[in-house]
Amino acid sequence: MLKYRFNSVGLLLLLLIAIVLPFYLADYWIHSLTVALYYVIMAVTWNLLGGYTGQFSLSHHTFAVIGSYTSALLIIRIGTPLWMGIVSSCIFNAFISLLLGILCLRMRGIYLALTTWAFAEIVKSYIRMDFQFTGGDRGLNTPLFFKTIDPLPYYYLFLAFAVITILIIAIIMRSRIGYYIRAIRNDELAAQAMGVNTVRWKVFSFMVASVLASMAGTLYGHFIGLVSPVLGEFSEMAFIIIFVVIGGMRSQAGPVVGTISVRFLAEVLRKWPEVRMVIFASVVILIMRFFNGGLIEFLRKVYQRIRHGKDGESVSVFQKME
Amino acid sequence: MGKTENLFLFFKKWSRGKGIEEIMNSQSRPLLDIKNLVKDFGGLRALSNVSLNIQKGEIRGLIGPNGSGKTTMINLITGIYNISGGAIYFSQDRIDGLQPNVIAGRGVIRTFQIPRVFKDMTVLENMMVPALCQQQSMAEAKARAEELLEFSLLTRMKDEPAKNLSGGQNMLLQIVRGFMKKDLRLYLMDEPFSGVHESIKGIIIKNIKAMNQEKMITFLIVSHEMTTVRNLCHRISVLHKGELISQGTMEEVANDPLVIDAYLGGE
Q1: CA A31 to CA A225: how far, in whole Å?
Q2: Which DSSP state fits A136?
Q3: Which of A35, A57, A128, A164 makes an SS bond possible with A116, Cβ 3.0 to 4.6 Å?
Q4: Mutation test of the interface with chain B: which of A186, A313, A316, choosing the one with the most B Cβ atoms within 10 A?
Q5: Nearest in space to A266 (alpha carbons), one of A54, A65, A39
Q6: Rounded CA gap, B145 and B131, in Å?
Q7: Beta carbons of A195 and B130 less than 8 Å apart
């Protein structure tokens, strides 16, 4: 219970700060925060897939790419209105994620990771190769969502979408589906023997995460005004995993805290790009060694220490019995 | 060799026969009806033409030396393996070929020899999973879980992650979790007493007896614990090298020359 309360209070505080923050910031920082919010959505949705369901997908960033290109291509090549491009992109991604989800159903761990990675590489290579249609490495110019380059409206758009995404996942995880998903990750065979339709809920999880990621990618394209294969680079996927792991896998606030912290650190270290990766890697090693529950676990321990004046280490049943 | 000999002497000693006449003489159609079941793993025939039926409300023991096909049988009934031949009927419906979750949905639940609990979930959350699969409300499922945990003396651990439990407690949790299924009709237990402390064994037996008497739940129990099998089961079936070699009360089975041969190592 304490865990839930701690998460909710933390998120609410973050939200309040997020709403008033742009009034005190320069455009550059608002832009950076908007980009960070895009990654928050990607991290939170990957946490549903890789964290809660245990499907270690390496193609999550690709759904953002497919999303952004679907919308851009529909608008540029066919001339559909912007809203229709976004909606069609969602539907198309739901279909693609359904197919990939079914393909990956019986795969776990490294096999699932490699299959999804291969899918990501195919998509990226195709975009690069079919220059006539996709614009190749140069990408495609897409219309802006708000017809302005002022980052403030985009900031609130991404903030709203990030909050909706976090809420959707929180609702899923607190519902019966949350129990099924966690049971599947813990022991798929036992879950099935208890009556959990593992096929249905694994595909469901894959589709929800992928469609939300594609939506984020679509909006991102209409925020930057350009879609390019850069978002499909493997390093994008690596960063999403880093955000989740540093923040705290399988916690609702973790990916949010992780993304904001790492993005902030990245901005501060922008002047020294060569040391940036070394610092990230060192942080990952430190977190893995001392707090494999991530920053959120660290914050929780600090919070418990302040409240109770002791370490919040969980005590096993046997210690309690003594 | 010595172990199987002891095992045989043990159940021979206790073979006094126990039964509920009405179940044994029942002319009604069986709840579980297995016909000529065959299972091949490549060139190995794990089960060969096994026919077995269990009446509603019966507690059936399934015994046999190691490698005789007991666990395979449970895996086939619950849909984890596909059958190679024969048919499995549950409540007159053919269930072989169905997915394990569909079979569970019809009220057939199982436990595993090595307890398979959801380790990162709390004891209470573990209990909720089968109930929520049946569209029971959260409140209803929670109330029933707490009631069952109380009955099984696990209430104190309900908010602990299952990974903090001992081996025996994990087995108990695994068994009690199955009772969360509201329309549970057939419960298949694979070695529910192995590696379990006497006190926990007592709770498991208490649970089985209560559920059998109060809710007429049918049990198929695979076990090597002859004393327990004798005390608990109405009838016993004996598997040996993938074949059903004997069926009946413990007394009948213990005096069957084929069983004696199997347990005393007639190769």
Answers
A1: 13
A2: G
A3: A57
A4: A186
A5: A39
A6: 9
A7: yes
d(CA A222, CA A154): 9
Largest CA distance in chain B: 56
Q: What are the distances in angstroms from CA A137 to CA A43, A68, A114? A: 25, 15, 24
pTM across the whole model: 0.87
Mean pLDDT, contiguous 10-residue spans, chain A (322 residues): 61 84 92 95 96 93 96 93 92 94 84 94 94 90 90 95 94 95 95 94 95 96 93 91 90 89 88 83 83 85 79 41 33
Q: Which residue in this structure is represented by tokens 């559909």?
A: A80
The 10s digit of each residue's pLDDT in A233-266 is 998 999 999 999 999 888 888 899 899 999 988 8
User: Cα–Cα distance between B45 and B41 in angstroms, integer?
Assistant: 6
| CA dihedral sign, ordered A153, A155, A156, A162 | positive
What's the rounded Cα separation, in Å, for the pair A297 and A253? Answer: 10
B53-94 per-position pLDDT tens digit? 999 999 999 999 888 999 999 999 999 999 999 999 999 999
> Is B37:B74 a contact under the CB 8 Å cutoff?
no
The answer to whether B185 contacts chain A (CB < 8 Å) is no
Q: CB distance A179–B164 less than 8 Å? A: no
∠B139-B142-B143 over CA atoms, to 5°?
85
* Cα torsion angle, B146, B152, B158, B162, sign: negative
Per CB-CB distance under 8 Å, the chain B contacts of A183 are: 118, 121, 129
Q: Amino acid letter at B137?
A: S
pLDDT for position A147:
84
State how far the Cα of A149 lies from the Cα of A157, in Å rounded to an integer. Answer: 13
Is A186 close to B120, i.e. CB distance below 8 A?
A: yes
**Predicted ipTM?**
0.86
Chain A, residues 169-208, CB within 8 A of chain B, namely 176, 179-180, 182-183, 185-187, 189-199
Q: Sign of the C-alpha dihedral, residues A97, A99, A100, A106?
A: positive
Quick: pLDDT tens for B218-244: 999 999 888 889 889 999 999 999 999
* B112 has a chain A CB within 8 A of its CB: yes
Taking phi over 0 as left and psi of -120 to 50 as alpha, with beta for the rest, A54 belongs to left
Separation in Å, CA B201 to CA A208, B18, B204, B207, B227? 44, 20, 5, 10, 12
% of chain A at pLDDT higher than 90 = 63
Length of chain B: 267
- The more confidently predicted of residues A275 and B111 is B111
Q: Does B118 touch chain A (CB under 8 A)?
A: yes
